[in-house]
Design a protein that fits this description.
Elements (H helix, E strand, L loop, with lengths): L34 E5 L3 H13 L4 E6 L3 E3 L4 H5 L9 E3 H8 L2 E4 L2 E5 L4 E4 L2 E4 L2 E4 L3 E3 L2 H4 L3 H10 L9 H10 L3 E7 L9 H15 L4 E7 L5 H9 L5 E4 L4 E5 L4 E4 L3 E3 L2 E3 L4 E3 L1 H5 L3 E3 L5 E5 L7 E2 L2 E6 L6 E3 L3 E2 L4 H19 L11 E9 L2 E12 L5 E10 L5 H10 L7
Parallel strand pairs: 1-2, 1-9, 2-5, 9-22, 11-12, 11-17, 12-13
Antiparallel strand pairs: 3-4, 6-7, 7-8, 10-18, 14-15, 15-16, 19-20, 21-22, 23-24, 25-26, 26-27
Helix pairs in contact: 1-10
The structure holds flavin-adenine dinucleotide (FAD).
Length: 427
């Protein structure tokens, strides 16, 4: 049950902040000390909030999210097909804030005025001494739907991606209602959060079709070549349930006539899960924090200092989680995983705690562990570990190892519990 009582009342009388200005009233007066505001209560933001309280108890910590409760995307795929009904971890922000001793505010942050160190929300503005931006991703329907707002709204509503926590219920209902025909699912080009997640979900859906004897198939329209382990699974165990079209980048979608075009095909579908290309959350663009290519063209992700996590040219703003751009020219982006976001949140907390005392901490590097089901009954899993180190020339290198586990014993649950214990309150 979500309790709203601990959320700080966002005074409606303060009015909307439409433009920057010192006259915008303060939504929350500071408690007199220095304030760290964290925007985004996902894996990155929640972990940062908890560790900041531990490392710098003298700082005021305020976590802002547009929702009232955290919901976990990891472990959601098996929950979608009712395989693990209790797997979806949820907790209201008020409970976590009370337990760890920070404040939580429900608000949509609409703009960041970095010059004045102020955030704007629909309810009013707020000052900060340090800001952690951990706002995750946005869906970028533009490449497939152009600027057609009606088509974008229809696609979002009728064919939810299930890659944002607030899309999970609609997707679960869609799968429960599916009675047959072609269910189409897109796999967008990288970078995307948890790259094996679409394939894990495809296995779950294939299993659902097979065990419920539904006369239908999943048509997986994949911008890339897939992942070897899953490709084998689709071809061998689920050949009647999955049609995997590889190297088939989407050109356009008509959500009203239920058609999708690739370079080679025009596909008609009965229902769909449209996972569009991804970018950093909107605030990154609004705050002028996007990275640019060599020609100066802005990209979709946040530019950051890879050794200290602050924004380029602004050491009062720290960037954490899936919204990050390239960490190194040697491998590109860090994996967009919950484990990585949590570790980055912890590092950002240590950076701010040290800086608040006038010192510069030694750079710390994160790591990532990702558990994915490659089949469900009997269960088989794969674990992907990524480790990092700084080379002599100062660049970060990555080592990735993939392990197959034909007899998992709940390792993913133990993994999740370990990370969740750093950010939520055990039930
Ligand atoms: C199906 C699926 C399965 C996955 N499985 C795994 C797995 O097994 N292991 C793993 O490690 N990772 C997994 N991931 C990836 C993982 O979920 C993400 O990497 C992780 O959520 C990133 O955390 P984050 O803190 O960067 O962003 P998020 O968790 O998305 O949090 C961002 C928060 O910011 C808030 N926000 C955004 N904009 C605003 C605003 N303007 N104002 C206020 N609030 C705002 C949002 O409401 C949200 O709560 C999976 C992802 C998916 C989709």
């Amino acid at each position: 049950m979500v309790s709203r009582r601990r959320f700080l009342a966002a005074g409606a009388a303060l009015g909307a902040a439409r433009c920057f200005g010192q006259s915008t009233p303060d939504l929350l007066p500071t408690s007199g000390g220095r304030r760290v505001v964290i925007v985004g209560g996902g894996w990155g933001g929640l972990t940062a909030a908890r560790h900041l309280r531990r490392l710098a108890p003298e700082l005021e910590v305020l976590l802002i999210d547009r929702d009232t409760a955290f919901r976990s995307l990891p472990l959601s795929n098996s929950w979608l097909v009712d395989r693990t009904p209790d797997a979806l971890v949820q907790q209201d922000y008020a409970t976590a804030a009370r337990a760890w001793g920070y404040r939580a505010l429900r608000a949509e942050v609409t703009a960041i005025d970095r010059e004045r160190r102020r955030l704007h929300t629909a309810q009013g503005a707020l000052g900060y001494d340090w800001l952690i931006l951990a706002a995750g991703i946005r869906h970028d329907y533009g490449p497939w739907l152009g600027g057609d707002a009606r088509a974008i709204e229809a696609t979002r509503r009728l064919y939810p991606a299930g890659f944002l926590a607030n899309e999970l219920d609609a997707l679960k209902q869609k799968l429960a209602d599916f009675r047959g025909g072609d269910l189409l699912m897109t796999v967008p080009p990288p970078p995307l959060r948890c790259p094996p997640a679409p394939y894990e979900r495809a296995v779950m859906i294939a299993w659902l079709l097979k065990t419920r004897r539904i006369k239908g198939r999943l048509v997986l329209v994949d911008a890339g070549g897939g992942m070897q382990r899953f490709n084998r699974m689709f071809a061998e165990r689920y050949k009647d349930q999955v049609l995997h079209l590889t190297h088939a980048p989407v050109k356009s979608i008509d959500p009203f006539n239920k058609t999708l075009s690739t370079e080679f095909d025009e596909l008609k579908f009965d229902d769909a899960i449209i996972i569009p290309p991804q970018q950093a959350a909107d605030l990154v663009r609004q705050a002028g924090l996007v990275e640019a290519d060599a020609a100066g063209t802005p990209g979709g992700w946040a530019a950051f200092d890879p050794l200290h996590l602050h924004a380029i040219g602004d050491e009062r703003v720290f960037l954490v989680g899936d919204l990050l751009g390239r960490a190194s020219p040697l491998f590109g982006h860090y994996p967009k995983s919950a484990h990585m976001a949590a570790r980055l949140g912890r590092i950002a907390a240590a950076e701010i705690a040290a800086r608040s005392r006038g010192t510069l901490p030694q750079p710390q590097l994160p790591e990532s562990v990702c558990h994915v089901y490659t089949d469900i009954e009997p269960p088989e899993m794969m674990r992907i570990d990524a480790q990092y180190r700084v080379r002599g020339d100062g660049l970060i290198t990555q080592t990735v190892r993939q392990h197959e586990d034909p007899q998992p014993r709940g390792e993913e649950v133990v993994w999740a519990k370990g990370l969740l214990a750093e950010m939520l309150v055990p039930n």
